[in-house]
């Protein structure tokens, strides 16, 4: 990675982090768990990395298997995370 | 890299941002979560289209396996087991980051003998380190909450020095791993160390404090994803990871405050050996949960029915006027708002009536005990203002109590109970009130007039 | 110039035309003041208090010789007989109701100003004794009612059960009616009000009362703030509305006086019968016939299980304040009309013109003339 | 089981032990109820009302044969004489003040419960007739005072001058005193309060009253919520403080009863003399000797220019509410002690033990014994 | 590009973010502004170190000239002229963007005959277009506010079609400029068009609505800076420009709402054709000055003595409770706060007393007319709440008036008079009140309870 | 400018704008004018571009003069903007 790219990525990192701070200004306690769960699902974005990593051809490669393992794990995180969050939030529907 | 793919990633990032934003409000949270899921789908699709056709099948199989497991667990689990589920999923996310980073390292360094540049190298070790801690830490948290591991805080001597030692060792291993890339041993040692650290930092924490720990680990898993983004030079990972990392820290902080903990002690691990929230002023042994004015305001705002239970403390604080203001505010928002008047609230018959009439609360908002007692269970928020004895469940349950047999307001039956009082001080009868320690009860400490004034200010903002 | 204050002779009267405080103010302006012996006693002012304030004390005959003689109530023929010829008097007169006294005043060439005839214009508000006394009377109706009622006013939720708030129904939202609303509300009652003038709705609500709106009919003519003419249809609808409300009322207060006329009957005997046992009616208008057909002047009677209070002189039940306010009203008028050297006799001036009844042996007041010469 | 309600015989009493509403509640529980003819008349409940509620009407002799006889005031010897032997009575008794009646009750083997002896514990609050009646009495003191006073309570800034608010000084912040504070404040008075129990300061202030704090002395012992012993030094300092305040007071209300003793004298004749002419004192304690040394029981007297009201039975002036609350108190006690098939006689139970005076021909009540056997 | 410089830019960006964030709160706003200034300094220094030594002197001269002018104007200007200053500075910022973009274009295309890539090209035309509008628009706004240009809305037929035509022409010119880079004519035409558009969109807007326009132009100047960032491929310009652009839009929106305008009509230009402040409802001929809740709040906050004159309108609005709140708030800030009670205020004797007692205003805060009338001239703010006749100076001065001779409260003698009423409606006596047109009198229109509730909310923020 | 750089710049733009929206969630109206003024000063960041643009050698170049003009204008904006804002905010100081 070159420095120029690093700088831009750092911009992205800094702005993203700051946004993260700003967004969670005041969550009501009732939403603590759903929010945690929902953002946990987002952290399953590693799946993108995992897919790229398993984009290896040979099954002899360690990388391939690791990537595939990562896909499974990350998918569980993503799919399970979103589904569970949705179940929780359904309960909040206004009567 | 294809510009369209990058563009898709950008859209996904924005969807994540909007999703998290919306999850701040009860009414929009579900939409938010769905938007964020759409973002994830876009990101995955954009990734899949760039892989080689031959790999597609493997990838799909893995995704299907993962989805099946994820969905099964998500729909099977009991509502009460939500926090441990989050922990479990979170752990998988952390492990995925570890796997991706090692995979990338292995591919470049071991299989293709590339020279990994220092930035990427640092990113790889960070990703492994954080991901590793997240994984085992989350597993322990899951185990504790689901009862598979001893839920108590497990403490042994020299815990902190040991953790420090392991931490330093991890740094050394990291440096070596970056310097001597060719040898995978350092990286593997680092992986092992991080896994061990994850176990050790969570094991000494008691079960009751797990939600905070999970929130923190959630933040870690975001950071792990973020560092993975640096490894792969991928923006969407960086943005999403940074969002989760930062918002997770804030959320942890908020939760800490709600539970009366300091974030520092959480970060150091092994905080709260004993649960520290017991308010000692009143000499009470009851463990209570505090709530801040803002959160209380949000609870009101998201309620559809509120019952206020005024007591002697309202009279002492002269809070009747500001409570009337609160009631007007709530009614403007279509929140059903009533007052439950206990016959002996205060210090003279009709004490509450006098004060509420002075504050111009219409008579038809005041409901007698017998008429309202059945309605508490359908009420979202009960707001107890300086009342104590008249809502003390001991009157129903404890034949030893001097107030046993006195009819009380069933405030404890409501979904959420918020109590405004100055301390854990007792009421007229001089007895403890265990309602304050109930799981659905939140204490809003402070002089009633002052806190409710702030509460009203807060609600006006929303 | 010497100002004399006579002791009131009317039955049940407790007020006095000047208090020691108002005496001081007159002295400051250079007037001399003399008070009849024991004139202030019933208002809790002793002769010493007046002397301390700078007044002299005199007998009825002595006082009657002053340049200006002040009273609360109108003079009797006998009192006029004792007065020095050509002097000035100020008091309530309701001259159109007492032709004999007017004749006597004319005979003695007395310039008689009447407090009840002071025009109700903005700059004369400080002299408006009708308002100042009606205001106190409004307060007192509620206290009388509360005292006679066998229940308490406020809603009270107690261990021994809930006491529902007293329902007060008030007829007329003039000065007295408004003060009655305010007082009843303060004590915690639920207050309903009826009046023929639609603009009183806002005023009633500004005090927390509920206005009983007669829907769908017009027919009220307002002149100078007073209801001059009300259509029969309106009155009928109003009656129906009130009949449906009076059944639930615990306390009924009627304040509808129409100046110069017999008071309208607002509460019929049938309505009284429909009321709950133990309820109370306070009729403020018994002096001019009563708003309740079966009320009795200056008496408290129980009829059909309802206590009906007919005190005609309510301000006299609050003599300390009533005298204080009346005193201010009367000296303001006096100082408007005269200084220490004599009266200005500016006959075109609105207040003089409005309040001077007889002068130089003539009946000069238009309204009084129009009634007495009928 | 048949419950009988006797008509009250005490002078000026207007209350009745059961209202039609409370009758209904007893019937629902399976009791039978009989009411003496015209027992509720003065509380505005006619015999028809009771019949409509399901009670039967009977003569005094008939009622006296019921299984349980209820009253408000204590029984006279004569009344006890008419009662059937061995039955149960519930009423106020103040047994320690009437040894002869206690003897009569013993002789007839009557189980007499006394409402004034119900222990003031949390779960007995619904039976606490002392509180329910004191509460009404507190309200009534203010209404009586306001009615007798020649001024209005609130501050009023009017065109004819400003009326300063009435100053009310209240002795004792028990149940009655607190309600008096609340009522006087509502009406707009400035309220000052003195009490020996320091914890009442907060309570007084919670109602907007100003507490007269006796600084720098301790010496009040509290037992079970009551002031048991007050040091002489404290009382002296309190007196000095009050003397300086009473001069400005327009209305003084005294509520200090000490159960089982003569009421303490809080307002001496000298203090009355120092008061303004036209002021009013309402003494709630004339039944037990009066808090004011020159008040007269059940009379309104004017002494030294001050009107002193001595009604000893204030709740009887609010019979509708007073009977309603008393009725709830008494049936709550009754239903606690018995069901339709008979009494439980759980003699170790706190409320039974506290309120049962005589039983099986014995005086069983400890406190009463301790006083009568002295 | 040097990594350190880039890092400095990153720090500057973060400082801008924190600076704006802090400017949300009165207590921190000044620090925020200073932090943002430090960020700017860092950005400038980081830029200066990379220029050639020979240019340094020119640059410094320019900076010194600019600073001198800026400082002079900033410290010279009256506090009341702040909005026009902002407009002026903003215009210069816009023009600077135009100049930089043309300069870059000229250098590359005209002097060095480079081929400008399409992204840069688009950025250049956008920057010129937006910057140009910002410049002239701001200048017109400045002129209107400072009285140099007719402050009224200048309307002529066909305004909207003309604007549309110019807009379309600008797009055409832009496309041509990007396509035929070599010929500078298109760019110059575009520049001219944008300058003209700036004039035309602002000229039809009335003076009272200028603050909203300035806020919008401020947002534009941010966008101009942002596009310049794309021209120069410079992150700090992009971040800072994006921040200002986005926050400006939000701020404009907030201001619009506060003034009851729609953002769309502002964006289209030519909204609010007539200045709307003269209240015509009551048919009054008196010309009054309106005041907003915010400004009223500032006036209260900076006062050291306040007298409230309540009247019948307070009773109608039932505003007594919220006025008591206001009084408590003021007292907490050591503002002397009293009520002047006119003997015939309201509709019955003692009307005000009843209501204020109900609201628990202590008796000693109420002062009679005779006692307070001399004190008005030493009072900073008199707040008239629904009173009219009792403060009408005609009672003193106009023998023809029906209220002549009635004693009144000398509210007009105070430094500032704020009047809360719904309209120019008359009082009981049915006469005009010329006090409302006095130079020291400001009208706060609206139902008393509602406006004072807002006022209190506003004051709590400060 | 290449596409890759453009994408990163776009990230920066989007995140920056979103942050801008988030930051101005709740400004009290009293701060409207200072905030406007303060952010106006920030928009003077064009000065960076102006400096770079005037980093031309010859005085014969149009670009140079345009750049120098831009520096002056932007400096006025920056310096004047911050100073004026500071003056306004000083008034908020509690007495
Ligand atoms: N109504 C009657 O006739 C009557 C008469 C005599 C006795 N009682 C008895 O009084 C009791 C009434 O019950 P209750 O629930 O109304 O009151 P309570 O049980 O006495 O409790 C009042 C509570 O208010 C809190 N408090 C005091 N000042 C406060 C302030 N400024 N702000 C916020 N909170 C404040 C106190 O807690 P902190 O100190 O922690 O703030 C206290 O726990 C019953 O036991 C009843 O039997 C009633
Ligand atoms: N006190 C007495 O005993 C008595 C008795 C009878 C008559 N009066 C007369 O009544 C008058 C009293 O003077 P005043 O100054 O109190 O009242 P006023 O002169 O009647 O003026 C009241 C003002 O309040 C405004 N208002 C009404 N509703 C409002 C609301 N909801 N929010 C805000 N403002 C509202 C009205 O203007 P907008 O419509 O524009 O809002 C009106 O101009 C005097 O002329 C007096 O002579 C007094
Ligand atoms: N100078 C002033 O500004 C000033 C001073 C005092 C009074 N006023 C005005 O004078 C007017 C009269 O006041 P007042 O107290 O002397 O009134 P009042 O005693 O003459 O009458 C009392 C009320 O009874 C009402 N009434 C009459 N017939 C009725 C009926 N059939 N049913 C119900 N209500 C009926 C009247 O409308 C009036 O409101 C009011 O408008 C008052 O505001 C003006
Ligand atoms: N179960 C309950 O919770 C319950 C119910 C009712 C009353 N109480 C308590 O019982 C207590 C007594 O109430 P009560 O109304 O029957 O009181 P009371 O009638 O016995 O006395 C009235 C008041 O007079 C005061 N007093 C006595 N001597 C005085 C003196 N020299 N100067 C001034 N004041 C003097 C007393 O302190 C008391 O406050 C109170 O504490 C009350 O709160 C408790």
What does this molecule look like?
- The complex is a heterohexamer, with 2 copies of chain A (95 residues), 2 copies of chain B (462 residues) and 2 copies of chain C (374 residues).
- Chain A is mainly α and 95 residues long.
- Helix content of chain A is 74%, strand content 0%.
- In chain A, helix 2 (32-43) packs antiparallel against helix 4 (62-90) and helix 3 packs antiparallel against helix 4.
- The mean pLDDT of chain A is 81.
- Chain B is 59% helix and 7% strand.
- Chain B has 3 domains: 1-76; 86-268, no CATH class; 293-461, TPP-binding domain (Rossmann fold).
- Chain B is elongated.
- Chain B has helices at 3-22, 29-48, 53-76, 82-111, 118-146, 159-179, 185-202, 210-232, 235-258, 263-268, 293-301, 312-317, 320-332, 351-358, 369-372, 394-397, 448-461, and strands at residues 289-290, 305-310, 336-341, 366-368, 381-385, 416-421, 441-445.
- Chain B has a 7-stranded parallel β-sheet with strand order 1-7-6-5-2-3-4.
- With 462 residues, chain B is α/β, with parallel strands linked by helices.
- By secondary structure, chain C is an alpha/beta fold.
- Chain C has 2 domains: 2-117 and 318-368, NAD(P)-binding Rossmann-like Domain (Rossmann fold, 3-Layer(aba) Sandwich); 135-317, NAD(P)-binding Rossmann-like Domain (Rossmann fold), CATH 3.40.50.720.
- Helix content of chain C is 34%, strand content 20%.
- Chain C is built from 13 helices and 21 strands.
- Chain C has helices at 20-28, 47-53, 60-64, 77-82, 99-107, 129-148, 175-186, 200-206, 232-246, 269-274, 319-337, 350-355, 366-372; strands spanning 2-5, 32-36, 56-58, 68-70, 88-91, 111-114, 156-158, 161-163, 167-171, 190-194, 210-211, 220-223, 226-230, 251-254, 280-283, 300-303, 306-309, 338-339, 342-343, 356-359, 362-363.
- In chain C, the strands form 5 sheets. Chain C has an 8-stranded mixed β-sheet, with helices on both faces. A 7-stranded mixed β-sheet of chain C has the order 11-10-9-14-15-17-16, sandwiched between helices.
- Chain C is globular and about 65 Å long.
- Chains in contact: A-B, A-E, A-F, B-C, B-D, B-E, B-F, C-D, C-E, D-E, E-F.
- At the A-B interface, helix 1, helix 2, helix 3 and helix 4 of A face helix 1, helix 2, helix 3, helix 4 and helix 8 of B.
- The structure holds NADP nicotinamide-adenine-dinucleotide phosphate (NAP) (2 copies) and nicotinamide-adenine-dinucleotide (NAD) (2 copies).
């Amino acid at each position: 990675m070159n420095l120029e790219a690093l700088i831009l990525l750092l911009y992205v990192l800094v702005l993203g982090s700051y946004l993260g701070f700003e967004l969670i200004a005041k969550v009501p306690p009732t939403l603590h768990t759903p929010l945690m769960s929902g953002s946990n699902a987002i952290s399953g974005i590693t799946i993108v990395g995992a897919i790229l990593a398993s984009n290896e051809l040979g099954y002899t490669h360690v990388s391939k298997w690791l990537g595939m393992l990562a896909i499974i794990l990350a998918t569980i995180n993503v799919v399970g995370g979103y589904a569970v969050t949705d179940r929780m939030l359904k309960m909040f529907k206004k009567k | 890299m294809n510009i369209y793919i990058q563009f898709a990633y950008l859209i996904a990032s924005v969807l994540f941002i909007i999703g998290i934003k919306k999850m701040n409000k009860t009414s929009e949270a579900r939409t938010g979560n769905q938007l964020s899921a759409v973002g994830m789908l876009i990101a995955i699709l954009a990734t899949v289209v760039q892989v080689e056709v031959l790999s597609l099948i493997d990838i799909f199989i893995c995704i299907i396996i993962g989805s099946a497991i994820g969905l099964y667990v998500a729909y099977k689990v009991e509502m009460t087991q939500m926090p441990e589920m989050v922990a479990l999923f979170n752990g998988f996310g952390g492990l995925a980051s570890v796997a991706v980073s090692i995979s990338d390292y292995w591919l470049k360094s071991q299989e293709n003998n590339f020279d990994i540049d220092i930035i990427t190298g640092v990113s790889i070790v960070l990703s492994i380190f954080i991901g590793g801690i997240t994984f085992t830490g989350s597993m322990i948290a899951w185990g504790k909450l689901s009862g598979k591991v001893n839920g108590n805080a497990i403490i042994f001597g020299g815990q902190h020095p040991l953790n420090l030692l392991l931490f330093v060792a991890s740094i050394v291993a990291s440096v070596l791993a970056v310097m001597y890339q060719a040898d995978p041993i350092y990286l593997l040692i680092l992986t092992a160390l991080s896994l061990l650290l994850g176990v050790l930092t969570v094991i000494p924490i008691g079960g009751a404090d797990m939600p905070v720990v999970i929130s923190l680990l959630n933040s870690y898993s975001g950071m792990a994803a973020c560092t993975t983004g640096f490894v792969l030079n991928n923006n969407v990972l960086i943005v999403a990871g940074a969002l989760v990392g930062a918002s997770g820290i804030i959320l942890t902080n908020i939760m800490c405050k709600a539970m009366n903990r300091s974030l520092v002690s959480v970060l150091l691990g092994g905080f709260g050996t004993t649960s520290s929230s017991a308010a000692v002023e009143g000499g009470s042994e009851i463990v209570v949960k505090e709530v801040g004015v803002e959160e209380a305001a949000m609870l009101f705002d998201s309620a559809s029915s509120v019952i206020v239970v005024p007591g002697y403390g309202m009279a002492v604080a002269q809070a009747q006027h500001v409570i009337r203001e609160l009631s007007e505010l709530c009614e403007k928002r279509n929140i059903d708002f009533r007052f439950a008047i206990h016959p002996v609230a205060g210090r003279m018959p009709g004490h509450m009536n006098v004060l509420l009439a002075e504050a111009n609360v219409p008579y038809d908002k005041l409901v007698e005990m017998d008429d309202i007692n059945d309605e508490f269970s359908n009420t979202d928020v009960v707001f107890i203002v300086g009342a104590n004895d008249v809502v003390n469940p001991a009157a129903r349950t404890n034949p030893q109590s001097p107030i046993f047999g006195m009819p009380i307001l069933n405030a404890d039956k409501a979904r959420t109970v918020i109590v405004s009082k100055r301390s854990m001080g007792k009421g007229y009868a001089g007895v403890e009130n265990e309602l304050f320690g109930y799981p659905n009860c939140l204490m809003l400490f402070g002089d009633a007039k002052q806190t409710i004034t702030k509460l009203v200010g807060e609600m006006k903002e929303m | 110039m010497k100002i004399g204050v006579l002791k009131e002779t009317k039955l049940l009267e407790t007020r006095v035309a000047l208090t020691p405080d108002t005496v001081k103010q007159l002295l400051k302006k250079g007037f001399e003041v003399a008070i009849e012996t024991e004139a202030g006693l019933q208002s809790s002012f002793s002769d010493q208090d007046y002397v301390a304030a700078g007044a002299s004390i005199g007998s009825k005959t002595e006082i009657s010789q002053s340049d200006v003689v002040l009273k609360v109530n109108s003079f009797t023929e006998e009192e006029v007989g004792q007065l020095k010829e050509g002097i000035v008097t100020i008091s309530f007169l309701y001259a159109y109701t007492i032709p004999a006294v007017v004749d006597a005043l004319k005979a003695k060439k007395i310039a008689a100003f009447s407090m009840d005839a002071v025009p109700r214009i903005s700059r004369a508000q400080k002299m408006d004794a009708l308002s100042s006394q009606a205001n106190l009377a409004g307060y007192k109706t509620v206290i009388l009612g509360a005292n006679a009622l066998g229940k308490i006013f406020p809603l009270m939720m107690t261990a021994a059960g809930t006491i529902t708030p007293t329902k007060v129904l008030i007829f007329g939202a003039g000065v007295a009616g408004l003060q009655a609303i305010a007082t009843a509300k303060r004590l915690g009652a639920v207050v309903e009000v009826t009046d023929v003038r639609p603009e009183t709705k806002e005023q009633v609500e500004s005090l927390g009362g509920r206005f009983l709106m007669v829907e769908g009919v017009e027919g009220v003519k307002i002149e100078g703030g007073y209801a001059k003419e009300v259509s029969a249809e309106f009155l009928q609808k109003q009656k129906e509305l009130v009949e449906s409300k009076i059944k639930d009322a615990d306390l009924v207060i009627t304040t509808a006086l129409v100046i110069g006329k017999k008071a309208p009957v607002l509460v019929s005997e049938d309505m009284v019968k429909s009321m709950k046992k133990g309820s109370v009616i306070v009729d403020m208008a018994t002096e001019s016939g009563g708003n309740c057909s079966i009320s009795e002047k200056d008496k408290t009677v129980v009829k059909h299980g309802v206590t009906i209070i007919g005190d005609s002189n309510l301000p006299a039940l609050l003599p300390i304040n009533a005298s204080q306010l009346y005193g201010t009203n009367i000296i303001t008028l006096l100082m408007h009309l005269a200084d220490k050297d004599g009266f200005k006799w500016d006959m075109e001036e609105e207040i003089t013109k409005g309040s001077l009844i007889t002068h130089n042996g003539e009946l000069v007041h238009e309204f009084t003339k129009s009634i007495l010469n009928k």
